[in-house]
Amino acid sequence: MNQKNDLTVVNCIATSLLAFVLTIPMHELFHLLTFYAYGLGDQVTMFSATCVGYDETSVHFENFASFHRIMVAGGSASVLNMIIGLVLFFVLLKSKMGPLMRVFLVQLMGAQFATGFGYFMVDPLTQLGDWGNVFKCFPDAPGFVMTLRIALFVIGAAGVVFTFFALNYMSYYFVEDPANKQERLYVAIRLHLVMLIVAAVIGCIGGIISPATGGSYFAVIFANLEWIEFFWAFMFTWFMVKHPKQSRYLYSLPHRPNYLLLAVGVLLVFIDLVILGPGIPMN
What count of other Cβ atoms lies within 10 Å of the Cβ of residue 158? Predict the structure, then answer.
């Protein structure tokens, strides 16, 4: 921790980039696959870093039963993120792995939860996002929409709080002395705060590039509030939550910088923003 030339942050940036591109673009890809699964692939007008667009005049959601209407209108991807996050949580608890892989999977787990539970909590408060699209598909069922909003918000809020504690719990695999506040800060910055900064910066750039936002900076900033889990995980690990009495330390954060991994992450983000960001017509 006290090495003069500590380059652990290089690896944490690299894993953060990979966690981002294996969450947001994959989330949008699942939207695309859902449209194709329901036979609406030719109606998709854009597949971008922040959105899968469709021709609202051509897609007739009223022809679907309620469940299928929810799935094709946008609800499927955040459900998938939530499931992937839960699987990763148990993998991290039960499986042995190297330190770099564990850093990556912790950040990926948090990113999946942020895009799963985060959507559940934030979208019901507005008409923005995937579930905002779902709510607009039930204009003749206001009671159903209100019930769905409340249920999603409760599940999302509970899941977001769970994510705070889950990320905090995983921090202590890298903290040798849980009572050492400086060591907790050191790990919290690299494991959680780096991921927050990387995801928020890339997410805002992607939102500005994408025509799907309609040039609304409010929508861009609001959408990236989903990454708030990593801020509170940082705060929890640093000083807000009482540290465990018994150490769960397994290994230190990887000190030797993996520049190849960083290059791969940068390349994938570049492809995500430059090629997918502006949008690719699918019809």
Answer: 13
